Amino acid sequence: MQESLHKPVMEEEVLRFIHPRDGMVVVDATLGLGGHAAALAARLQPSGRLIMIDKDEESIAAAKERLQKSRPRCDFVHDDFRRIDRILDRLGIEGADAFLFDLGISSFQLDNPVRGFSIRAEGPLDMRMDRSGFISAYDLLNNLTEEEIASILWKFGEERFSRRIARSIVRVRQDGPITSTKELVDAVLRALPYRSHFQRIHPATRTFQALRIAVNRELDSLDEALKKAALYLNKGGRICVISFHSLEDRIVKENFRELVRTERFRLVFKKIMRPTPEEIGRNPRSRSARMRVIERIK
Question: Which coarse location class describes where this protein primarily resides (predicted)?
């Protein structure tokens, strides 16, 4: 069941560019259900070490079951990857040979209505990756001003109708708090021109993306984590990042550009790499993925 829930994106490319092998220390900073981790673990045995980080305790529990028979040493860490330096220090690791960041939300989270990520299934307005966190999408939508909501939708979703949607949300909550994903979708649809209801991508996609990013502080965490990962990367080691929208990719691109300027790193390939048409056919959710890889050379 877990295999069907999570198809690791660009798995072949991850294995090709990280090239995991016996004795390496590899950090999977976004464990999810462990799809990439399982493939890495199979190649790190018997004496390699795999550190797996995730903010979602449910994902970690599922990944542990999937990887219970793995032979290399496996460390499961429930934490935010922005604290990757503290995590590695705590584990006694001075340097790693590879870091993997797969920034996509997993099908396991997206398809569970209770988590509040899904546009198409009704659920509570949660959207927390770490369910012990204090701020949820409900808190943002029902407490921020119209201007603040519009700012989030524009900054994190690049939603061109951000002001209209924010105005609609504030108008709806005057009759009582917005509590469900369906209520949010309805508020978005009311704000948009009728023709936008028939686009290939659901018209509320950017709104949901923006709220998820804001709730989980995803862009700040990514920027911080990439900077710290570079400090712990061994010579000859690589950082591989799979992102799914332009905001993430911009942060990756800017961080990698700064590292190249130090003359201690090189880009493994200059342009982004996309999934093959065959993979997109097998797994349509991979269609927006883009990969960048950098290597430490000094």
Answer: cytoplasm
Report whether 35 belongs to an annotated binding site.
yes
Question: Is the per-residue pLDDT at 2 higher than 70?
Answer: no
Segment 65-85, tens digit of pLDDT: 888 877 778 999 999 999 999
Which amino acid is it at 8? P
What type of residue sits at position 173?
Answer: R
Closest CA to 240 of 12, 4, 49: 12
Give me the domains of the chain, ranges plus CATH numbers: 2-108+218-296 (3.40.50.150), 113-216 (1.10.150.170)
> pTM of this prediction?
0.91
Known binding residue 36? Answer is yes
In SS3 terms, 216-279 reads as HCHHHHHHHHHHHHHHHEEEEEEEEEEECCHHHHHHHHHHHHHHHHCCCEEECCCCCECCCHHH
Work out whether strand 96-102 and strand 25-28 pair parallel, antiparallel, or are unpaired. Answer: parallel
Measured from the Cβ of residue 186, the count of other Cβ atoms closer than 10 Å reads 15
User: What's the token pair of residue 5?
Assistant: 């829930």
DSSP secondary structure code for residue 283 in this structure: -
Place of tokens 């997993």: 106
CA–CA separation, 115 and 181 (whole Å):
10
